[in-house]
Amino acid sequence: MANRIRDVDQAVDIPAVNEPGRIVGILGGMGPAATADFYAKLVRATPARTDQEHLRTLIWSDPTIPDRTGALLHGGVDPTPLLLAGALRLRAGGASVIAVPCNTAHAFIPRIASAVGLPFVHMIEETVLGIRARHPNALHVGLLSTTGTQASLLYDEALRRHGLIPVVPTADAQEFRVMAGIARVKAGVIDAQTRALVTEAAGELVQAGAELVIAGCTELPIALEGVELTVPVVDPTLALAEAVVRVVRHGV
Question: Which PANTHER family match (predicted)?
């Protein structure tokens, strides 16, 4: 039996892993639940009738990557080396395009992009382009995100570049509702209290004039799943998934 199995293995025609345009590298672990959520949305966003019509993917999920907000705001450990190491692992595995399902990590992508030598699908830019396409009359856009994402101005600059005005939480709401809700999701606590924290923060943005709200941390769409707000909620995780399908299938 062992010989027969070995003979079959030797007869298998293994496709080249560097076939261009066909393998998506997912640089994840920030956090693990958000990476799983992204992959599920990537599968759902792919127009496929059979297993074989789905995208080939490599997932490098490294939860030991240091906290991005801590590095940006408090002099914490720089996540750049592990982000680079993970991206290089994906490249070595045959990835031809990389997606990073973590909003705050996009503050560090410019530091590693040239060394990796592969295109990154930019989560923030794709989210804002989607808002422009789907909500052309919107002007004031609420932003729920980590404090690190806010401080890095990732969304602020992208929104203003497209003629949109960001609406952000108060300092108290950011610390005690948004960041508290994110921390609970990262800890695996996705319950009524978690949803209430995030929903209340979103409601305050609506009261401040937001016509839609970006769930701009990959834990936030998880917290807001099934929650109904009075304005549309924009999911950057889904925007990234849809963009990856478009890039791989159509090259744009």
Answer: ASPARTATE-GLUTAMATE RACEMASE FAMILY (PTHR21198:SF7), GLUTAMATE RACEMASE (PTHR21198)
- Give the number of domains in the chain: 2
Say how far apart CA 252 and CA 248 lie, in whole Å: 8
Identify whether 217 is a catalytic site residue: yes
pTM: 0.91
Claim to verify: residue 89 and residue 179 sit in the same structural domain = no
Is position 4 within any domain?
no
Place of tokens 């027969």: 4
- Euclidean distance between CA atoms 158 and 118, whole angstroms: 22
* Domain assignment present for 7: no
pLDDT at position 101, please? Answer: 98
Q: Which residue has the tokens 């970006």?
A: 214
Does 43 share its domain with 80? yes
Same domain, 137 and 87: no
Instruction: Give pLDDT tens digits for 2-54.
Output: 444 344 444 444 444 444 448 999 999 999 999 999 999 999 999 999 999 99
Q: When comparing pLDDT for 1 and 118, which is higher? A: 118
Domain membership of residue 76 as a residue range: 24-122+240-250
Residue 95: count other Cβ atoms within 10 Å of its Cβ: 26
Is 107 part of a structural domain of the chain? yes
Phi, psi of 196 (to 5 degrees): -65, -40
Among 27, 34, 102, 224, the one annotated catalytic: 102
* pLDDT for the residue numbered 30: 98
Among candidate residues 217, 222, 224, 241, the one labeled active-site is 217
